[in-house]
Amino acid sequence: ALENLHQERLQDASSQAVDSLRRACEEIRRRTEESELAVGRMTHDLARRVQEEAEKREAQGATLLRKLAEESEARLESEGEVSRLLASLEEALGQEGERRVAELLKVAEGVQNCSAAVEKERGAWSAAVERLSGQMAELPAAAAPANLPGIRERLEEQSGVIEALRSELAEASATLLEERLAREEA
After folding, report:
1. Quick check: helix, strand or coil at residue 186?
2. Separation of alpha carbons 157 and 151, rounded Å
3. Angle (nearest 5°) at CA 20 between 17 and 26
């Protein structure tokens, strides 16, 4: 009977140990399942957050690329406008330069014509003065008009004025010619 009692106690102790072991195993299994569920939820949440962040970054990248493309297009348009403006400005300057050269040539030609006319008139005046001087020398002293010296002085003054005009016209013609040559070189 002692042996039976001892065996029963051993059986009870083993049964209790098995029950404790079974409960510990079930607790471990329950905790493992809870941990796996928690890890699954965390993994799912983390994957969702990563996906959201990736989509957000992709949207930002697309926005930046679109803005960059728009800015690039705007700059190309601006550069095109500037190029067109420069071309039209160069053309206008070229036309203006040609027009001014033509005007300067006309002015120089007019100055030369004027100079030639002044020279011709000066020659006519000189011839008239010479003729009058010759005629006055032939007249007797008593028949000469009283204001003859005044006429001679005025004729000489007019010759001086004509000579001064001729000199100014020659200077203006030379200046215009120099300007024209400088513009042609530029």
Report:
1. coil
2. 10
3. 140
**Separation between Cα atoms, residue 46 and residue 55, nearest integer Å:** 14
What pTM value is reported for the model?
0.37
Contact 178, 141 (CB under 8 A): no
What is the sign, positive or negative, of the torsion defined by CA atoms of 158, 164, 166, 172?
A: negative
162 in Cβ contact with 118 (< 8 Å): yes
State the Rg of the chain over Cα.
Answer: 60
* Mean pLDDT to the nearest integer, 63-88: 93
pLDDT (tens digit per residue) in 3-39: 777 788 888 888 888 888 999 999 999 999 999 999 9
Nearest by Cα to 128 from 145, 151, 102 = 151
Residue with tokens 């348009």: 77
Look at residues 128, 76, 70, 104 and name the one whose alpha carbon lies nearest to residue 184. 104
CA-angle at 176, arms to 172 and 177, nearest 5°: 115
Residue among 71, 159, 87, 86 at smallest CA distance from 123: 159
Is-contact 160 126, C-beta < 8 A? no
Closest CA relative to residue 175, chosen from 118, 108, 109: 108
